[in-house]
Amino acid sequence: MAIKVRIPQPLQKLTKEKVEVEAKGRNIQELIEDLEKRFPGIKMRLCDEKGKLRRFINIYVNEEDIRFLKMEKTTLKDGDEVSIIPAIAGG
Predict the structure, then answer these.
(1) Average pLDDT of the residues of the chain
(2) Is residue 69 a part of any domain in this protein?
């Protein structure tokens, strides 16, 4: 199962400057575990100490925000596209 993952610029140093990588997983949680095996340190940037997604990280599956789906349990299938987008604050 190949899933295309778009990596934001702040995390690209962990992916050897790659903007897109392929990963595997039946859901977002497994996808993050697969990314961590290949790119050590990425999980710490995406998840808190309890393994939950950090609130300032937005993840989209095929342009749908997982906050409106099943969060980390959102199901993935071959050919899906996942985008990791850090929230931007300002004022």
Answers:
(1) 95
(2) yes
